[in-house]
Amino acid sequence: MKTLKITSVFVMLGWLMPASIMASSGASAIDKGDTAWMLISTALVMLMTPGLAIFYAGMARRKNALGTIMHSFFLLCLISIQWVMVGYSLAFGPDISGIIGGLDWIGLKGVGLEPYHYAPTIPHQAFMIFQGMFAVITPALITGAFAERVKFSTFVVFSLLWTFLVYDPLAHWVWGGGWMSKMGVMDFAGGIVVHVSCGAAALVAALVFGKRKGYLKELMPPHNIPLTVAGAGLLWFGWFGFNAGSALTSGALATSTFVATNTAAASAVLIWVFLEWYQRGKPTVLGAISGSIAGLGAITPASGFVGPMSALIIGLVAGFLCYYAVIVLKPKLGYDDSLDVFGIHGIAGTWGSLATGLFASIAVNPSGANGLFFGNAKQFFIQLAGVASTWIFVAIATYIILKALDATMGLRISESDEMEGLDLSVHGENGYAM
Length: 434
Prior knowledge:
This protein is mainly alpha-helical.
């Protein structure tokens, strides 16, 4: 019995022991340049979530500015803990039948400072925390769909359930050795895992939540476009870590990904602004920054597989498609996706994931595959299957989660609280006290 107790103590100490003590001789394979780049990229992706907070806040009405910011900032903390405790293990742990990762790494047990096969030149924990920032921003993006009307308690439970039941399995399917990965689906930095998933969830959420009070009956313009521009700038800046960081090295692939990312974003801005200028008579700042996010979202899955000219085309098409989704399709269908998550992220992510099957070239990334335009039609249909499966899975799972929460907790704040605004009614604060 005494021996058993001593053994148990050592097991616990092993789980709690600092990773630097547990690191094996494999640490000698660590490349300092790659590690530095990945830590910087992780910080860039982390900055995207506060950037998203102010991007969304500027587009919300004045009375909901702080409530909108709170969603993203709170998730930065909530999902960071979820990821460390169990999320990373579910997403990237040892594969179970192509469906989910095992619980071998719960609480980061065994995730130390030695390299691992996901990224053989950086510490395992560096890869883990980089991926954690993707897990953080994905549910934060969804909040734009139900902004200005969600109960905070319901938002917290929904985000946690959605991350457990949707994001973690999907990340495993695509990146963690799951069935999509084995099928050959290519998603360099999150077109399917982040943008298609959040776009599908946003559309379902907008339909289940219903419209804001007064929607389509009164004007609901952004209250602070300069704030939104600042947020867009932080997102664009952080996206270089998002995409180029996904190379997991600091060399040539990261460079080509960086160039593709900027090229697609710039071309999407141009097409959005010119379309708006032609159709509505005036080019707007809000249109320009919306175009930038469309281009960035579309290039995300393809960024490490395509050259600059392909990236330019992907950005142009993304700007065109997302413009019509937001300006034409949304008013025609009448759904209230408050901050256009579906119209931008969902449409851009879908197009970009399919475009990967068109424009991918092994001349850019030998570890990928050629797309349709480089002689491999099969890859396009693999991408199509991955996108369609993601839409179906995410839509059904999100609907079930929301309906269950509606039946138990309720989704929306009261009508009087909604009229007063989230800042005062939910958080007891005023973003513009002066």
